[in-house]
# Entry
Amino acid sequence: MKEYYVIHNLNRSQRDELFELYKKEWWTSDRSREDVDNFLKYSTFYIAFIDKCSQELIGFSRVLTDTIGLAYIYDVITREDHRKQGLGCELIEETLNHSLMNDVKMVELVCHDSMCEFYHKFGFSADYQDNRVPMRLYK
# Structure
């Protein structure tokens, strides 16, 4: 039996919890509370796991997609005291199985080298076939 439930809208308290999760991670520690509100507002959808007992946010991911060609997964995160329990796998599966992902042809994400093996389990690879490596502009 799952010890959490899934939600797709965060209340004010849960947004505060997400902000606190972000502050503890190397790739999101510089985000402001306003950034968090904007990410949530402009993401196509997001998945949040809420602990059934404590009612606290324990997992999160968000997606930008056109629902046909490409989806980009951002901010896959589980609360530190809930790691190594399969929650990350369930979060990725829930994200990939969301109804807005049904017709998507390509799903992309960026991760630290140490996480590549984790994402390989779901079919992610660095193989871009005939495509070029993505380009980026820093502003």
